[in-house]
Amino acid sequence: MALIITDDCINCDVCEPECPNNAISQGEEIYVIDPDLCTECVGHYDEPQCQQVCPVDCIPLDPAHVESKDELMDKYKIITGEA
């Protein structure tokens, strides 16, 4: 699954630089995650780094973008050019 940032986001700016895939960007009101680039840090780290640094715990799994670990790894390989 990709991750999503909820309306609880306080725009603290700590998640964006932690994303190894550049999937996080400033939206109109809060930060947003591009599901096409989010791999939950699979291929980079054992856990999603944005979730680790978020002070308000507002980055859950996105039920609208369900993906297995294998699918996330395939996406990682495409994004990084290893495919």
Describe the protein.
The protein is built from two helices and two strands; from the N terminus they run E-E-H-H. With 83 residues, the chain is α+β, with helices and mostly antiparallel strands. It has a single domain (16-80), classed as Alpha-Beta Plaits. The radius of gyration is 12 Å and the shape is globular. It comes from Halopseudomonas salegens. Residues 1-29, 31-64 form the 4Fe-4S ferredoxin-type domain. GO terms for molecular function: 4 iron, 4 sulfur cluster binding; metal ion binding. Keywords: 4Fe-4S, Electron transport, Iron, Iron-sulfur, Metal-binding, Repeat, Transport.
Features:
two-stranded antiparallel sheet, alpha+beta, Alpha-Beta Plaits, 2 helices, globular, 7% strand
CATH topology call: Alpha-Beta Plaits
Q: Helix tally?
A: 2
Main sheet?
A: 2 strands, antiparallel
Strand content: 5-15%
- The CATH architecture category equals 2-Layer Sandwich
- Helices and strands, in order, run as EEHH
Rg, alpha carbons: 12 Å
Strand tally: 2
Structural class, judged by helices and strands? Answer: alpha+beta
Write down the overall mean pLDDT.
Answer: 96
Order of strands, widest sheet: 1-2
Helix content: 10-25%
The level 1 CATH classification is Alpha Beta
How many independent structural domains? 1
Broad shape: globular
The gist of it:
With 83 residues, the protein is an alpha+beta fold. The chain has helices at residues 49-53, 69-80; strands spanning 24-26, 31-33.
